[in-house]
Design a protein that fits this description.
mainly beta; single chain; about 0% helix
Length: about 120
Amino acid sequence: VQLVESGGGLVQPGGSLRLSCVASGFTFSSVRMSWYRQAPGKERELVAAIPSTGGSADYADSVKGRFTISRDNAKNTVYLQMNRLNLEDTAVYYCSARPMVVRYWGKGTLVTVSS
């Protein structure tokens, strides 16, 4: 299993970024996909998750209405559109999947929100 994130960077408060995660090594279209994040000095937290079919997604309260998770099963890719970013969104963002028993993680992509 391999999960490769991209799209992080430096953005000003109020700005937007779109993260991507390309997956391989499992049947992507059958697996619920998630985005987590870990801010400096804090525990890793779930940001958003989307079912295998791309139906109703789940979001952390802190990102509801600002972030949107989506997926393209033809491209084995999951996205995280992040709008109205604020300082508290600064973190390393990880793509995650649990095809069977083991949960897999990407290496993460850093998002820094700063003026």
